[in-house]
Amino acid sequence: MKRLAGILVTLGVLGLLATFVLWMLPADEFIFTPGSAKPLAERVEIEGSRAPPAGGVYYVDVVVRRTSRLEELFPFTRPEGSTVVPEQQLLPPGTTEQERDRQTAAEMARSEEVASAVALRELGYDVKAIPKGALVVGVFSDAPAFGKLENGDTIVAVDDNPVRTPEDLRREIGKHSPGDSVRMTVVRNGKREQVTVGTIANPQEPERPIVGIQVDQQADIELPLDVDIDLGRVGGPSAGLPFALEIAHQLGRNVTKGCKIAATGELTLDGSVISVGGLRQKTIGARKTDVDLFLVPAGENAAEAQRYAEDLRVTPVESFQQALQTLATADLKC
After folding, report:
1. What Rg value do the Cα atoms of the chain yield, rounded?
2. 295: how many CB neighbours lie within 10 A of its CB?
3. How far apart are CA 313 and CA 308, in angstroms?
4. N or C: which end of the chain has fewer CB within 10 A?
5. Which phi and psi (to 5°) does residue 118 adopt?
6. Rounded to whole angstroms, how far apart are CA atoms 266 and 271?
7. CA–CA dist 39, 60 (Å, integer)
8. Are 247 and 119 in contact (CB under 8 A)?
């Protein structure tokens, strides 16, 4: 009997050891897991701001890491609401995790600057923005630009003709016919590079060529107030909308009506809210944090958020201006 007990104990120890080893060993895929909604009040400092009204603005993050061998072999060990993605979806060929971290950090820095400019301009401050090119903020995987252009590239010329605005870019590409190639000058990681990209017909306007990218205005921004935002190691552009809401909140706009308002969405310089990733995880995180309202980009992001919202109130918005109007007129009782 003692011998059997000893064997069972040994097997149990070996099983725990094997589980630990499988948990510690990384697999080839990445996993997105829900984070939580976190208040921005202590993360945003604004020159001359006073104590904001009651309530709070919250951002929602997503935890991104490699899956473990244990999670790969036994999917039931993955956290609730997680999504597994292939390595190449997160790290294109030739890209390291360190390079991706640098890119997401740069996206976060720009998100902070753009959010500050959008919020302050909406509040009536004088914000200066000198156009410097068309910033790539999205590359469609089924388009000619995929693998040629990257998020964070700034297009400064097409066929040697200067590009200072997204409209310049559309005009220069529009000089071609679908199927032609265009030669672009881009600034990538501080260096100029020449990139040749093919074109296809725009599905909505078949006579107009496109390369398959989403762009924003790259600009040198001068703010009238010092705004300092620090989320630590969190990266990416998706907190632009909550940043802008928190700035407005701290500068006296009664954004929250005493409620907990969570938001996600990338902001462009004109105040548009564009789609972001991880809505499944972000919605679950916001729901579990018990916020009162979750603002999300309109369209597919909103549809995905509704699928996981349960009793969480989800409201789609297309712009920062619409977000402010929505909050001003919402029936919020907190």
Report:
1. 23
2. 27
3. 11
4. N
5. -65, -45
6. 9
7. 9
8. yes
CA angle 189, 193, 194 (to 5 degrees): 155
Q: Is the dihedral of CA 227, 233, 235, 239 positive or negative?
A: negative
* pLDDT single digits (tens) 233-252: 787 788 999 999 999 999 98
Q: Any idea where the domains of the chain sit in the sequence?
A: 27-126+225-329, 128-220
The CATH number corresponding to 27-126+225-329 among 3.30.230, 3.20.20, 1.25.40, 1.10.3470 equals 3.30.230
For residue 92 the two structure tokens come to: 């294109």
Contact 165, 134 (CB under 8 A): yes
Amino acid 124: pLDDT: 93
CATH T-level fold of 128-220: Pdz3 Domain (2.30.42)
* 184 token code pair: 């672009």
- For 146-155, write each residue's pLDDT tens digit: 989 988 899 9
Q: Which token pair is 69? A: 């061998």
Tell me 77's DSSP state. Answer: G
CA distances from 159 to 163, 174, 184, 236, 323 (A): 10, 12, 6, 31, 39
Q: 230: which strand partners? A: none
Strand, coil or helix: 264 = coil
Residues in the chain: 334
Q: How far apart are CA 269 and CA 211, in angstroms?
A: 22
CB contact at 8 A, 139 and 213: yes
Secondary structure class of 182 (helix, strand, coil): strand
Helix, strand or coil for residue 179?
Answer: coil
10 φ/ψ angles, rounded to the nearest 5 degrees: -60, -45
